[in-house]
Give the backbone structure.
Amino acid sequence: MTDQNASHRTERPSVGVHFKCCNVYSKIYVNHSGTVYAGHCPRCAALLEIPIVNEGGSSSQFFSGS
Ligand SMILES: [Zn+2]
């Protein structure tokens, strides 16, 4: 992946998360630099960030936020 010109549209990776603060499920998306998944709780707007670690895991990870 050598994307010097990232002007084309690509679907951003996302993960489903459980926001424990409000007991709701939502999706959050990878950030610009591709280092973390970041998103806000749909109810209370709490920020959740999940570092992306390369463990050769699947793309269908499921996280639980606090
Ligand atoms: Zn919340």
Notes: The mean pLDDT is 82.
